[in-house]
């Protein structure tokens, strides 16, 4: 049991203890951003989310300035902290520009209270996920959405018994670069203004700066060329509304195809629904997982599971929502989703074993 004493949340705590992450490369630890390590696509397809958002969510996405607090005391605003150098920030801007997610503007067009920093966290494949430290802007905004409160969690799978005579088949879809696929409005991009000021010479290689100069009627060598600000023109990870907007739009695409029905939807604060087809599904932001319980013997096929995931494909294509084929799973007996590994023949569902072992750090 001494080896298990290092499991997070399980070991004995004493007053004054400082908990230091044991894995500096862990996904929950902020890391310095190297632009070439950031996982970005070479090209991206715009996700047209507005038809799949409620009027309120669409307004929050398109016009975030409408939901600012009235006269907040800026002396109480949190401090945004980042882990990126100026040269790496410039390299990241060029990568954003390459996929159409960089907006260039001037100081007069953005608020001095919205400066955002950038840090990175590790992904499983060794890449970095860049996070916008948008705490100052989040503090100024009124949170209006709660779509994530109606999501599932992996532990719900444990509540579906197999009794030794059933099996569980699962399918999964993971949307590809979903947060980057949102084509943001100018107002939303301005709310994602990155700290620092940039000259025309530093941004002269990018299309965003040339587009701004062309639209504003300025020339690159003109004495009136201003100092530029750079904004992320997408749905930034770190935005307090991002997970809700992504969850709601993704969920409504699935609903339009006939999925996420009330009698089949898994919600973490509700009991397991009484599904007439013993089919269950749910969405956590960009991850959709569906399961169907069928007889262990007798050759019964998970037809409802098959039909639900086939039906959404035309809707994904029409809306511009791309699915990562390398992570798609279809009708598997052992599958991993929502942080859980499910063994559909044996019955139990538990944290992914590699993750569990990394938590324990127990000797072999």
Describe the fold and architecture:
The chain has helices at 55-62, 86-98, 135-140, 178-181, 186-191, 207-216, 242-256, 303-311, 313-319, 353-360, and strands spanning 102-106, 117-122, 128-133, 166-174, 228-232, 279-284, 287-295, 329-332, 334-337, 340-343, 349-351. Mean pLDDT is 85; it is low at 1-27. It is of the alpha+beta class and 364 residues long. The protein is 24% helix and 17% strand. The radius of gyration is 23 Å and the shape is elongated. The chain has 2 domains: 22-144 and 182-232, no CATH class; 147-179 and 242-360, Alpha-Beta Plaits (2-Layer Sandwich), CATH 3.30.70. The strands form 4 sheets. A 4-stranded antiparallel sheet has the order 6-7-4-8.
Tags for this model:
four-stranded antiparallel sheet; 2 domains; elongated; 24% helix; three-stranded antiparallel sheet; 11 strands; 364 residues
Approximately what portion of the residues adopt beta-strand conformation?
Answer: 15-25%
Percent of residues in helices comes to 10-25%
The topology string of helices and strands comes to: HHEEEHEHHHEHEEHHEEEEH
Tally the helices. 10
Distance from N terminus to C terminus (CA atoms, Å) equals 14 Å
Number of strands: 11
Q: Give the overall shape.
A: elongated
Q: Kindly report the spatial arrangement of strands forming the biggest sheet.
A: 6-7-4-8
